[in-house]
Amino acid sequence: MIVDEKRYDDIIREVLEMKTRTTSKPCHEYRRIRRYGVISVDGVQELIEPINGSQKTETRFFVHNQQVFEILAKAHSETGHEGVHRMHNNLKTHYPNITREVIQLYLSCCNTCVEKNPILKEAQL
Ligand SMILES: [Zn+2]
After folding, report:
1. pLDDT tens digits along 57-91
2. Distance from residue 97's CA to the centre of ligand 1 (Å)
3. 8 A C-beta contact, residue 98 and residue 86
4. In the predicted model, is pLDDT for residue 123 greater than 80?
5. pLDDT at 125 exceeding the cut of 60
6. How far is ligand 1, taken at its centre, from the CA of residue 7, in Å?
7. Can you say whether residue 43 is alpha, beta or left, with left for phi > 0 and alpha for psi between -120 and 50 degrees?
8. What distance in angstroms lies between residue 105's CA and the mean position of ligand 1's atoms?
9. Residues contacting residue 22 through CB under 8 Å, at least 6 positions apart
10. Centre of ligand 1 from the C-alpha of residue 113, in Å
């Protein structure tokens, strides 16, 4: 799920607040803490997947809806108009909440891809 910037900041605040609180927490708060981590990148707080000590994978960032377009545009132009599957395979290693549906939606707005792909062209109508 991709949230807007305001909701994103709210989640960061909640996660930080919950992590520092020492009193007992309701179950749904535990679930949220397990789902998110917060790190600071160049002074900006970002939501990430919790870092699992034994895992050697890259940090995955949750994105909010103001970031998605930029990320998709960059990934899409750098790879020379890749299709949904390849974009999704690349992006999911960095951004856990960029779904195939979001990419599909982005591609349906890319004129170059729409011209090449009649299925997208239909979806655009
Ligand atoms: Zn394209």
Report:
1. 778 999 999 999 999 999 999 999 999 999 999 99
2. 21
3. no
4. no
5. no
6. 29
7. left
8. 11
9. none
10. 4
Separation of CA 98 and ligand 1 centre (Å) = 17
| Band (56; pLDDT cuts 50, 70, 90) | low
82-105 pLDDT tens trace:
999 999 999 999 999 999 999 999
For the cut 60, the answer to whether the pLDDT of residue 38 exceeds it is: yes
Q: What angle do CA 101, 103, 104 make, to 5 degrees?
A: 65
Q: For residue 107, give both structure tokens.
A: 């591609």
H or E stretch including 45? strand 44-48
Structure tokens, 53 = 């000590």
The answer to whether residues 95 and 63 touch, using CB atoms and an 8 Å cutoff, is yes
Residue 81 pLDDT: 94
If 0-12 CB within 10 Å is exposed, 13-18 middle and 19+ buried, where does residue 93 land? Answer: exposed
* Cα–Cα dist 40/21, whole Å: 19
- Under 8 Å CB-to-CB from 34, ≥6 apart: which residues? 50
